[in-house]
Amino acid sequence: MSKSFISAITYSDLKTRDSAETTLAGASEKNIFARLLPFLGPAFIASVAYVDPGNFATNIQGGSEFGYTLLWVILLSNLMAMLIQTLSAKLGIATGTNLAEHCRNHFSKNVADGMWALMEVVAMATDLAEFLGAAIGFNLLFGFPLIVGGLMTAVCTFLILGLQRYGFRPLEIVITLLVSVIAVSYLVETLIIRPDFGVLVYHTFVPEFSGAESVLLATGILGATVMPHAIFLHSALTQDRIVVKEPDKLKRLFRFEILDVTIAMGIASLVNMAMLIMAAATFHSHGLTNVATIEDAHITLEPLLGKAASWIFAVSLLASGLSSSTVGTSAGQIIMQGFLHRHIPVWLRRLLTMIPSITVIALGLDPTRTLVMSQVILSFGLPFAIIPLIMFTRNKKVMGILVNRKTTTLLVSVVAALIVFLNLYLIYQVAFG
Predict the structure, then answer these.
(1) pLDDT averaged over the chain?
(2) Which residues, other chains included, contact 344 with Cβ-Cβ below 8 Å and sequence gap of 6+?
(3) Would you list the domain boundaries of the chain?
(4) For 45-101, how does the pLDDT look when each residue is reduced to its tens digit (9 = 90+)?
(5) In sequence order, which ranges of 194-293 are alpha helices (DSSP H)?
(6) Highest CATH level, class, for 11-432
(7) Burial level of 53, CB count in 10 A (0-12/13-18/19+)?
(8) CB 324 within 8 Å of CB 130
């Protein structure tokens, strides 16, 4: 087994485990929320990947250029994400081993090494979006140059990652608070803009595209929503958090984890939808279809909705960048440890993954366009995380009592096929459209 997501088990963690085990044994007399609380956390950390700065970039472009047209993509992506993250969490619960470790243990060395190399590229694309987002957040809030914002992002990430030495609970709480900041910010934004709910509901459930660029953005939204590193990470978050062996307790633990995923991913889904709704209702409805950057969105929000709206937007972006950068770095550690059985200091990994972001800033490349393209790269990496996940969770020898039902395997296989189809369709549209 590789090193845990955290570096120490504290009294707080042991108390959380004791409470969880009491509930699983059926001996708890607490109310429903108190019984659920010890199990909440892993999905909230994983959900950070679904509200990272890449989502800001793709949703702002999608909403400003195509209005509510791509809203159905967000709904579909988040439903797929709930299913996939549930299976990832189940893999860790059932086996005590994370997805990267399973790949190393079950595939040939060449295949595992190739997957690790691909996932490192995906991790760099992920970190690029998160790092740039936080740097832009510092720039919009305080006027710092992007390069200074980038360095401040690195410092803040180090500080948050330092919480790992105090166990899993403090880090879960901080990440959940940052996600709450993002959620509350977009709740306020939605109340301010008062969108057209009739059109909104229609496009939420009626799929359609509007040219090759909309397909590119749809694939980017998919890549920004269902993220490979979150799939690998979630299995690591649950693999030794609460350890039980009895079949009945395993089933109960998995049911609680389903609730954790439903709540966390449900919030992430609403935030994602609110991002696109804000861009559609504010920019597209005013004929501003060329709001293609996060900076433009921030500047344009103030005259349209007031200074408070632009300030709230910047705060949510900064919270998103800092939380996702922290989680992304830890996910990269899990992937490396699982595939290679090697470990490098987290500070060294943070420094190495800064290089592409600092390079983008130094070259003066368009940050938002870079964010969108990074999300497309993530979308192409998804099958290499989802397909192994399906293989392992459908295998009774691996999963035991928590093996997938046939309907579950069929449904997640359809999801994987849809992702591959969208990627092939994107290549066709770009080449011949």
Answers:
(1) 82
(2) 333, 336
(3) 11-432
(4) 988 888 887 777 778 888 888 989 999 998 988 898 899 999 999 999 999 999 999
(5) 197-205, 212-225, 228-238, 247-282
(6) mainly alpha
(7) buried
(8) yes
